[in-house]
Amino acid sequence: MIGSGIAGRAVPAEQSEASRTPQMQSLVGPLLTLATYAIAFIFFFPILWTLLSGFKTEVDAGASPPLLFFHPTLANYHSALLETDYFDFFKNTVILAIGSTVLAFLLGVPAAYSLAIYSTKRTKGTLTWVLSTKMMPIVGVIVPIFVIYRNIGLLDSRLGMVFLYAAMNMPLVIWMMHSFFTEVPRPILEAAGVDGAGVGTILTRVVLPISGPGLASTGLICLIFSWNEFFLAYMLTAGNAGTLPIYLVRFMSSHGQSLASMSAASTIAIAPVFIAGWSAQRALVRGLTMGAVK
Amino acid sequence: MSASTISVPDAASSSVTGRIRSPRIPARLLLLLPAIIYLAVLTQAPFILTLWYSVHKWILDQPDLGRPWVGIENFKYAITQDTVFQQAVLTTLIITVLIIAVSLLLGLGFALLLNRKFFGRGVVRALMIAPFFVMPTVNAVVWKNFFLDPIIGLFDWLLTSLHLARVDFLTSYPKLSIVAIASWQWTPFMMLILLAGLQGMSEEVREAARIDGAAGWAEFRHITLPLLARYIELCILLGTIYVLNLFGEIRVATQGGPGTESTTVPYYVYQTIHDYNDVGSAAALGVLAVVFASLIAAGLLRLLVRTFREGQA
Hints:
The complex is a heterodimer of chains A (294) and B (313).
Chain A: H1 22-53, H2 58-61, H3 75-82, H4 86-117, H5 123-135, H6 142-152, H7 158-181, H8 186-194, H9 199-210, H10 212-228, H11 231-236, H12 244-254, H13 259-279, H14 281-288
Chain B: H1 3-20, H2 27-54, H3 73-81, H4 83-114, H5 121-129, H6 136-147, H7 154-161, H8 169-172, H9 174-199, H10 203-211, H11 216-243, H12 248-253, H13 265-274, H14 279-312
Helix pairs in contact in B: 2-14, 4-9, 4-11, 9-11, 11-14, 13-14
């Protein structure tokens, strides 16, 4: 292994197992596992460090060399939460995320159901078109939205943002739920149909309960995207409908060098997404690839 | 099942609503159309308006100038004279390619590491996905202040501990700093897709390859990689589409600077509409951005299809 000059020849340890003695083979596995732990730790470190710094005093947070051990304090959380308008932004973020997800579901789920159950020659084309709306670079539509919102008073309003985030997430809802609905066994639907159930009944009483996990993870992914969205929020909101990403930018310009309070503010801004994201882990790939990868 | 008791009133009510609405519209369209119309109104209509605005001169805070028709003037200016825009296109291209390349390579490495059985795999996986959940602004705030800051950053501490020269990363290497920040965020995305690909691979194929004597690099090169091709393609395509819109990181970490060195197309459009209130120019830039993105997507698709076809031959 040592000094194999050409990059392509530098065979990773695991892969030349076959030619190794048994003792070495038994070492390779644990070593690789250790390396994996180390890499995961380094990769996660920025988040860990932010979390830790939130519990430090300002002096400790800015200390050089960096402090690993310190007396934890909750003062930063206290001041970030109570002494700024954090809560207004938090409330906006929750309202926009939930409102837009509900709207995207109300329109997207029936559409996905229709595309999955009554598939016609045009279904594929429709799905592609839906996807293309998501692929459109946001700068291609932002100018008229800005101008129109400005004229009709939707600038810096929660309602206006709910509309946009719903449109942003609807392709995802349609594609993901389409992929879940096509997995519902046909005989179940046919049986319900024979029993005389209407389309609405079949959807709400038969299909949706079966697709529960799919609905939940799709919803969580929508929440994450709305929660973290920045470009639209930055262009179209200010103090009234601003969300946490906006709060963070403002906080940074006013408390730029206060690392500890900045960390506390960051931690509470991202914590809900971690909970949502880790719970939706299994369906995450499906969501990110619009159902293309299961 | 008690389906019959449910179905009777429901069948009646649905036929009633059917009559009230229009009996001619089938259920299929009733379910589908609201979403389609909504999407068309909120995404396609604005694009058509963008086209319309782009052929006018229109400054929002100067209403006395009116909105005269200027034809392709805005486009002509952007393409032939606007050096900031030209630079922004190049910057966007460079940053996007580097982010995709770095996160794809790291993501592939991570996916290979995770595709083994070992103790604590679930936790490791959760830790490695984590950066993807961090909102872009927090991501940039954390990197800018904790790591890249020339005075209090951890990298600075590392450098000075090693008696190396102090580096102001965001000023000296703005593009690479953005690439580092964004790659950290996008690596989990690539990793998740590639891991799904690896786990979908049948063990039998690998087993057969091993019996045929393919091991190590050969197995990876001739078995794993071709089987992953479709997933890599997806990573590149989707990644490009998302990363072309990169904005938050740039707004927080560099504000497009120093000068205009890290100004990308989305950032420049933002400045044109937000700072200069120039609707016409911003719209033209928006249209060009869409064309730019479509060209890249179309080119990528062809390139990828060709590469993988050759790879399989």
